[in-house]
Amino acid sequence: RVRYCDDEPLGIEYTYIPEKYFGDVEEQDFNHVSLYDYMNARGHLPVDFLQALMIIGCPKREAKFLKIEEGVSAVFCFEYTGRDSSGQVVEYTRSYLKSESVAFRFFQYSGER
User: Fold this and answer.
1) Are the C-beta atoms of 12 and 96 separated by less than 8 Å?
2) Pairwise CA distance, residues 57 & 73, whole Å
3) Which of 16, 19, 27, 58 has the greatest number of C-beta atoms within 10 Å?
């Protein structure tokens, strides 16, 4: 899916989920149902995530959607791997976000809060 802000493309996201758990995914209208509500209803909501962030030159396909220059324009590339409560991988998502349009703030906590 392509994400927009003020009618301009901000990011593009690809999500992959295993057919063995979500065989009817093609029948869903995600304009009206959230992906996580759908996954939760089938008993495989991701609850544990491994995340990675890279800054890369924008690949050709994504540059077209984001209306930026391929390879030259830098994008934030996020990878998420989600596991359900039994430890099974139920989601892999890769997102590309325009670096000039977003900012991130990270917090690290030590000990108990």
Assistant:
1) yes
2) 6
3) 58
Q: CA 90, 92, 98: angle at the middle one, nearest 5?
A: 150
pTM summary value:
0.82
* Nearest-angstrom CA–CA distance, 14 and 18: 14
Give yes or no for a contact between 12 and 4, defined as CB atoms under 8 angstroms apart. no
Q: Kind of pairing, strands 74-83 and 89-98?
A: antiparallel
Per-residue pLDDT tens for 3-49?
Answer: 998 999 999 999 999 999 999 999 999 889 899 999 999 999 999 99
Helix (H) or strand (E) holding 74: strand 74-83
Residues written for the chain: 113
> What tokens appear for 39 in the block?
């996954």
Q: What are the tokens at 100?
A: 């000039």
